[in-house]
Amino acid sequence: MRIITVATLAFLALTAGVGAKPTTIRIATGEYRPFTGQDLPGHGLVNTHVRSVAKAAGFDVEFHYMPWKRALEATRRGIFDVSSYWYYSAEREDDFIYVGPIQMDTIVFMVRDDFPTEDWNALTDLSGLRIGVVPGYTYTQEFWDLGDSGVLDLFEAPSDEANLKKLLAGRIDVFPVNSGVGQHTLENALSPDEQAQLRTLETPLSTTPGYVLVSRSAPGGVSLAAALQRVVDSDEFQLTN
């Protein structure tokens, strides 16, 4: 994440117009703890940062929670101005402007402790395994392409927590998960005995920057994206994982 200093906030807020009432940005988001969450402090680590970026650019924010696929589609149609947060996918360029990066995420493969290998070399090594996924998550294009072509057997679940429980029950063999989300879910949804039954493979699927998406259909979307990007690009920021 990028850290905003108080001085930067003050300066950029002043440049947005002294005494002007901030415009409110409507942001479609979803549950992705600890980074986004309706009942988390500040709506989660990433959404706290998104609010700070918006404030520095002279905007207020409203977060609206819904399933991720719905958040993306509603923002694409301009019902919401922004969606937080997503990985890059070229197919979205026509509908959205990427602002960021605002976060660096590492996606790992989680398995049961009795999984027969410590690592993988190519995604095709996972062929024949039951792989849990959450619809709407980006993962990587290669991963989804191999699933679409039938090389990988993908089984959908509504959340990472649901996939963890399917993994424990032996209903899937492996699933990709953000390392921070996986650790948070392990600690908050599983008992210590259950946690001890799971581990991650050594090689991550990806280390990926996260962005907010600004709708090209929303009024003033281009200028909004430019204002937010100026804050993200400020020399006062430091990118952290």
In CATH, the topology of the largest domain is named: D-Maltodextrin-Binding Protein, domain 2
Output the CATH class name of the largest domain.
Alpha Beta
Summarize the main sheet.
Answer: 7 strands, mixed
Indicate the CATH architecture of the largest domain. 3-Layer(aba) Sandwich
Order of helices and strands: HEHEHEEEHEHEHHEEH
Mean pLDDT, as a whole number?
A: 90
Q: Any idea how many domains?
A: 2
Number of helices: 8
Strand element count = 9
Sum up the overall morphology in one term. Answer: globular
Class by SSE composition:
alpha/beta
Beta-strand residue percentage: 25-35%
Query: Can you tell me the CATH superfamily of the largest domain?
Result: Periplasmic binding protein-like II
- Low-pLDDT stretches: 1-19
CA gyration radius, whole angstroms: 19 Å
Distance between the termini: 6 Å
**Helical content (DSSP H or I, runs of 4+):** 25-40%
Primary descriptors:
7-stranded mixed β-sheet, 26% strand, D-Maltodextrin-Binding Protein, domain 2, 241 residues, 2 domains, 8 helices, alpha/beta, two-stranded parallel ribbon, disordered N terminus
